[in-house]
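REVIEWER CHECKLIST
Item 1: Sequence provided? yes
Item 2: Single chain? yes
Item 3: Sequence as submitted:
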Amino acid sequence: MTVKSMRDAINDALHQAMAADDSVFVIGEDVAGCMGSEGKEGSVGGVFGVTTGLYEKFGPLRCVDTPISESAIVGAASGAALMGMRPVAEIMFADFIGVCMDQIVNQMGKFRYMFGGKTTCPAVIRFASGGGFSAAAQHSQSMYQVMTAFPGLKIVIPSNAYDAKGLMLQAIAEDDPVLFFEPKALYQTSCEVPDEMYTIPFGQAAIVREGDDCTVVAFGQMVPRAAAAIDALAEQGITCDLIDPRTSSPLDAATILESVEATGRLVVVDESPPRCGLTADIAALAADKAFHSLKGPVKQVCAPHSPTPFSPELEAAYLPSEEDITAAIRETMA
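Item 4: Structure as written out by the authors:
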């Protein structure tokens, strides 16, 4: 297999899906780049380079550069999906989801239900998500914890290049709207990724590490941080299950609960603030469904209930660290 970055793996998935199915197209700000201005058209490929090469290969009808209007992008994508197309829309940063919230929550997420199953909306919306770039409070939020609350939407959070490609190809094949949150801090991280097309089913968690002493559930860019903490603890004789849900909706609750029942302890890690978030949701799941298996308190490791700082030093202190994860594991075992 070829070693690819997460950015290149997603790009690979888009190229292959568009080559295999003429109904797949991409739409968004700068997905081609330099449209109507000086410079070579198609030279940008998105603010993070994820759509590089699509314009040159598939042309302007399938790589559609748009004005700066998230409402227009998602509105066009939802209408095209209702007519049988499979759009992949890009909203540059997850923080901008509020601009197109009505189209996503009240339209795309409810079409199938309100029309009695007579129509589908097979649209994917991509977001660069999360902190780690010192992009400040308006460009560093994850937002997937908010969107998980709304029925009718499928929420994807990859943590590595292999998963990103398989989950993207699955997302494009889905007949329901999918929100695909790409942790921008992980765009450059690499692993082995098959060159051929493959899919990863939604609602199927990955067991990243296996152990007996504690269950750790982590999302997105927190998965490699949790893995590093767990590897260090393993050298001291403490072993943990590390579960990456990969999708928060649908959530693979069965895998999480099975692990908690075996280890008797749970630590949940996410970069989002704690209130009404995924850490609280999974902690409540364990308290409700596996209470009698718990040997200690469930610990949540997340960012403070505060906007993301701009300063690199403050942002590093704001985001959960390996040390924070290690301390939580030790505390729940004390």
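Item 5: Key structural point noted by reviewer: Residues 6-20 form the longest helix (15 residues).
Item 6: Recommendation: ____
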